[in-house]
Amino acid sequence: MTTAESASDPLPRTTATSFHGARRNSAILVTGAAGEVGHGLIQSLAAAGRRDVVAIDVRKPDRSLRDVCQETYVGDICDGSLLTRLLAMYEITEIYHLAALLSTRAEFTPETAHEVNVGGTLNLLRLAAEQARSHGQRVKFIFPSSIAAYGLPDLATKDAAGVVTEDQHLRPVTMYGCNKLYCEHLGRYYARHYRRLAQDRIPDAVDFRCLRYPGLISADTVPSGGTSDFAPEMIHAAAAGRPYACFVRPNTRIPFMTMPDAIDATLQLAAADGRKLSRLVYNVSGFSASAGAIADLVKGFFPGAAIAFEPDEQRQSIVDSWPADVDDSAARRDWSFEPQYTLQSAFEEYLVPTIRARYAG
Ligand code: SER
User: Degrees (nearest 5) of the Cα angle 256, 147, 42?
Assistant: First the structure.
C-alpha cells in the first residue's frame, strides 16, 4: 500500500508497535501549537513530564516549544499528505486540536475559515480513527469549542437568558461559531457512529472530549483575530502605556477565563475518567464580566490607562449574540472543574504581576 492510498482507504489493523515493518514513536499531537493556548498547553505537558509531544502549526514554533517537543512541524492541517506522514511515523494516543481561525478573522474570509476550521478538524478526526485502527487503542481527541457556538438573536433575549446551558440558544451568527458547533457534532459522530454500516468498523475508536472556552485572557500573549479580544487588548495596552479604543460598549458582558485556568481545564478533561463523563461537550468559565468592569479594574491597577469606548457595530453585534454567562455545572460535577481565578484575583495574582514584568523591560 502506498502512503497516498493509506490516506483514503481504511487501514488494516496492525500490531501495536509496528507499521510498514517499522517501529513508530508514541506521540501526543498538538495542532495550533504556536498559538496562545498551544504554547501554554505544551509547556504544561512538558512540566508534567510529557516529552512525546508532536506539534504542528502554520507558523514556526519558537525555540521554547521546540526544546520541549519530540518534534515540531510547520504545516497546514488541511494538508492531507502531512497528516498521512504523521500516521506513518507516530503512534498517536491523544490529539489536542487547537488550530482555528477565530471569529473576527473568519468573517473576512469565511470560506477559508470553513476549510481550516471544519476541513482541518475532519482531517484530524479521520487521523484519530485511522490511528485507533492501526494501534488498536482509542485515541483521545480534545477539542476546544467556544462561546461562539451560541447565538442569541437580540439583547433582550440575551438579558432574559442569563446563564445558559450547553444545549440552549445554539444558533451561531459567525462562520467560526457555525464551524465550532458543527465540529462538536462531527466529534460526536466520530465518537459514536463513525462508519456505522461498515462491517469492519471499530466502535468507540475516537474518545472525543470537547470544552467550550469563554473569552480567554493571557498575561503572556495577545490574541489575534478574535472578538473577545477587547479584554486582553485593553489590559496589555494599559501595561504597555498605549491608549486603547474598546470596540464594544461598556455594558457588554460575556464569560471569560484566564489562560492558566483554560489550560488546566483542558488537561483535566483529557485526564478525566471517561465513565464519569455524562456529555461530550462541556461549558467552562472563570467569571462573567462587562467590558466596563474590566476597564475599571485596569484603570485601578494602571491609573494612567487611557481607555475609550468606540463600539464597532458589527463586532458589537457578534459579542451581543454570545451569552452573558454559561452554566458550567456539568464540568464541575463530572470532572471536578474548578477555576482558580475570580475576576479580582485574576487581576491581582496573575494578570497584573505577569504583565507588569513583561512590559517593564
Ligand atoms: N475568543 C474567540 C473569539 O473571539 C471566541 O471563542 O473568536
Answer: 65
How remote is the CA of residue 103 from the centroid of ligand 1, in Å?
A: 6
Residue 260, phi then psi, degrees to nearest 5: -60, -40
Q: d(Cα 336, Cα 268) in Å, to the nearest integer?
A: 8
Residue-range domains of the chain with CATH = 3-214+259-283 (3.40.50.720), 216-257+287-324+341-359 (3.90.25.10)
Q: Is the dihedral of CA 37, 39, 42, 43 positive or negative?
A: negative
The C-alpha cell of 34 is what? Answer: 504556536
Say if residues 209 and 267 touch (Cβ distance below 8 Å): no
Q: pLDDT tens-digit profile of 232-291?
A: 999 999 999 999 999 999 999 999 999 999 999 999 999 999 999 999 999 999 999 999
d(CA 11, CA 238): 54
C-alpha 94 – ligand 1 centre gap (Å)? 24
pTM score: 0.93
Q: Is the CB–ligand 1 distance for residue 96 below 6 Å?
A: no
Give the tens place of pLDDT for each residue, 227-249: 999 999 999 999 999 999 999 99
Q: Is 176 a catalytic residue?
A: yes
Phi, psi of 253 (to 5 degrees): -125, 130
Rounded to whole angstroms, the Cα distance separating 109 from 245 reads 24
If you count them, how many residues does the chain have?
361
**Cα(123)–Cα(116) distance, integer angstroms:** 10
